[in-house]
Amino acid sequence: MPALSTETWVAIKSEKGTGKTESLIGHVSEALAVGKPVILITHRVQLGEALAKRLGVPFLSSLGPEGQIQGFGLCVDSMHPHSRAKFHGEPWRDAIVIIDEVEQVIDHLLNADTEVKKHRPEILIEFSRLLAGVLNPDSEGQLITLDADLGHTSIDFVRTISGCPECRPYLVLNQYRNPSHPLAIAYENDTPDQLIEKAIQVLEGGGKVYFCTSGQKAGSAFGTVNLELRFRRRFPERRVLRVDSVTISDPSHPAFKGAGKINHLVQNYDIVIVSPTLGTGVSIDVKGHFSAVFGIFSGITPANSARQALARVREDLPIHVWAAEKAPSIFRVGNGSKSAQGLIRGQAKEAELNLRRWEEFTLVQDEGNAIVNGAPLETWAKMGAARNLELACYREYIKYGLKAGGYVIERYTEDSDENLRGLTKSIKVESQVTFCQRVAESRPFNSEADYQKSKERETKTEAERQRELRHEIQKKLLVEPTPAIVAKTQEPGWIRQIETLYYLTKGRQFLKGRDEARGQAVVQYGCAFIPDLNRSQMSNRVEALEILGVKSLLNRVLGGEEIGKDDPLIIAIHERVIANHQDLQLIGVNAPTKYPIACVNALLTLVGLKLDKMGRNKYRLRFEAAVIDAKTGQAKQQKLALHDGRLEIFEQWFKRDAGHSVKETKGQPTKQSKYSINKRSSVLEGLKEAAQISRIYIKANLCRKICALAETVWPISDQPSKVEAATNGSPPLTSHSSAPPPSPQVGATRVRLTETIRDPSTTYSAGTWGKILAIRDGLVEVLLDGFQCPIKIFPDDFETFPAA
């Protein structure tokens, strides 16, 4: 590839399995031979180790003195000064920097909850300095970005965060498509049981299968753990290999460090089951071994990652794929908006509310914050909007991608057998019971220091991981981790739900202190990535539930009182949700508005509760808990109102918080809160009173958007920072002017939407005309032609015209 010898930035887009990584081996070898350093950046350690080995570059885990001179490979999580790499970006300005699977690296950098979350501002700043040095015309560095799904979003991110908006990559586009058109069978059943039955048929015929799935834990019905158990029992004579985050780092398991030896490893097994741990960058080039490829994807992994997983076997085999029709809403990004602008607005509003609650804390408007919330925030919003759109039609996204990759799609729609569903459930329950008991019975650590030593080890057995999990649960919940408690903690979102209930009820007085402490924890050098800051806070959600009347409802139903569907409180909550639907969406509180009980239950879900129908028009609080029978060791679902262990947890949390409060106020007069919350009909007004909100204008330059949250809290300099000055030439996110729009007049103007606005039930297309009904709190209430209900929009969502 001649461009590698002449161009400063080479961006390679080429289909999976076309040799993107192999094309770099010669170039990297030549560079290392003349002493030029090489930095390889990935988003997973196992993937990085395998790629580094192929390119002849040492990985961080095996780094020696020579590696520090010649460069090394590392996971993006380690790109900060406090990591083992002690990474600083500026010294590597003359290196060759390779970012393989750049789309996923950036997504991981901005969204992952791994080690990167603890150091995100630092990593973003060092990442910016690295790219700025490499792309500087005076340096001798080179940047190589590769991805099968390379798009404008990642290219724009690199250009902007490096402070080089004028930089343009030399794009290498490989348009090769597989001419053989292999078959892809898409299973469109409610569950993947029929797909598993097909895999069993292939195995019964003497074939061998490669199975990829998006889950790993015992609580995942079709995760690697349960699939392994299922196949081992069905085919005790066949050899089964499980490759996931646990086995690949377990020195006692055959899959240990399997990414680097996968081609040799798989030849010894008839059934290979892998999680996303074995993803992009790994090629299985063995021919004639597997008979078919199977994939189960519930929506946890993005659609492009699912297609990448199916393409690991580089052979034209039939693939069988089941994907959820829609991905679970728990995986939505931000407030769930399907537009980048909607996500930015939600983050800006949440951040404004959160920052104004903090009395003695400010974020500094400097170059660091401009970097952290400039290109990263814009890219987070673009990727998040695409992800939210994908969640709504997950199965179709995967099918479309496979078809674009040359596959012939064949649909399979037969219903699943009830016996298969029963078998799936029994295996899951058995696996979950065993796992929870092992965690609960694990030997406790002698001290926090012992736990930290164990946590820092890169290799550990499954028993050691269970011991760590036991410690983490006990540290978080402050109670003895029984099997039942362990089972609840494995449910997505359960801890967040009971935290919300605690701070809405028993621990309400400690909410402000909790949020300030969590907020301070995500701030580094005066910088905080706004989505991380907002995710750390709970006050907006708790106060919104109070204003809507959910706390008043809990005061009645927690004691076992039955409530009618036409009860005035139920109707009042429903009406408040309808009146404040758009405002609630901005802060990520979503509830259906059609039926009052469905609306109320959606709000109660935020605290892990539900109203169950007990008779004609009567409802009572239900909590369905997984209880493990002490005699049989079997799990069973039992309806126990609030007896899933949370009440004991609340008692311990209250003692902890009360103790902290006493320590903080000892010798000082008790500090009364400056704000109070009234039960108003408007959620936004109530939150305004609680947080002393001021209007923000959404501006085209994203650095200025966040800085404009509150000038008194986050002062805006009259002079642009170096990064802002460097990015003034880059195109804005929208075509709007960065100046606030002129104030419209009620009744004096006609308006026309300049942006398409979407909510869960309606789409208001750009170009739609309407009239202004009212202006309040910086929002404009507009009645659009052809619609019966008015909507609240921002002034920069429309343009005005003189009334006829």
Q: What layout of secondary structure does this protein have?
A:
Blueprint: H1 3-6, E1 9-13, H2 25-33, E2 38-42, H3 45-55, H4 65-70, E3 71-75, E4 96-100, H5 102-111, H6 115-118, H7 120-134, E5 142-147, H8 152-161, E6 170-173, E7 183-187, H9 193-204, E8 209-213, H10 224-234, E9 240-243, H11 262-266, E10 271-274, E11 292-297, H12 303-310, E12 319-323, H13 340-355, H14 367-372, H15 375-392, H16 394-404, E13 408-412, H17 418-440, H18 448-456, H19 462-477, H20 483-489, H21 494-504, H22 511-521, H23 530-535, H24 539-548, H25 550-557, E14 563-564, H26 568-579, H27 581-586, H28 596-605, E15 610-615, E16 618-622, E17 624-628, E18 635-639, H29 646-665, H30 683-691, H31 702-707, H32 722-727, E19 749-753, E20 757-758, E21 763-764, E22 769-776, E23 779-784, E24 791-793, E25 798-802
Parallel strand pairs: 1-5, 1-6, 2-3, 2-4, 4-5, 7-12, 7-13, 8-10, 8-11, 9-10, 11-12
Antiparallel strand pairs: 14-16, 15-16, 17-18, 19-22, 19-25, 20-21, 22-23, 23-24
Q: What level of helicity do the residues show?
A: 40-55%
Assembly state (oligomeric): single chain
Residue windows where pLDDT falls under 50 for at least 5 positions: 665-743
The coarse overall form would be globular
Number of helices: 32
Largest sheet descriptor? 7 strands, parallel
Task: Give average pLDDT, whole number.
Answer: 80
Name the strands of the widest sheet in spatial order.
Answer: 9-10-8-11-12-7-13
| First-to-last CA distance | 63 Å
Q: Rg, please?
A: 28 Å
The helix-and-strand class reads alpha/beta
Strand content of the residues, in percent?
5-15%
Secondary structure: number of strands: 25
